[in-house]
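Cross-check.
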Amino acid sequence: MSRLRRLDNEVLNHMLNDSDEESNSDVPDGMSFFPMDTAEQQDLIRKLELRNNLKNDKYLKILTFLYLVVCGMFILLATRIKRKNETLGPYRKILLFSAQSISCSVITLRYEFIHNYFKVRRMNFYLSSQRLNILNFVMLIFLSWIILNQGGSTALLLLCHIPHLLFIVAFIVKRLMTSLDFELGNLRALQYKFKNV
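Predicted model, tokenized:
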């Protein structure tokens, strides 16, 4: 939302600067806002969409890289723990489940799929982003249950709850990106609604 406010302020400042330059000519006093032509509206909306898509792509690349680094760290920790180690042995399963949960969060953050069918041994599976989020949520609940039953030091408990935090961050970022796209769609609809006024 702060990006939208900043963008609104930039547009208003741009319009006010243009009107200030024109106010020195033959513009009546007290009139500081001029309606935009239809072509100017389309050009402005296109620029806003392009800027939004570029920023979203940059943020997604950064978040994807960070998520994959954390997932790799969890896999590395899981492979370093020996199975025969009595104190850290049970955390191996937790770390592997955490890596799977982080990879599900990356997939739902990066990609939006509505219908995806695939076959495994004569069984058809239907997968969508919502179903993958539900699967990830169930996995995180299962992971929390294992962690709480396991006990251990506070540092290990905090480390094991990192996938929960990453799931929440991915959900919030995805929600903000879709709301910005929806607002830009509404702006385009308003532009066409008031086109002939």
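The chain has six helices and two strands. The beta strands are 116-120, 123-127. Passed to J.P. for a second look.
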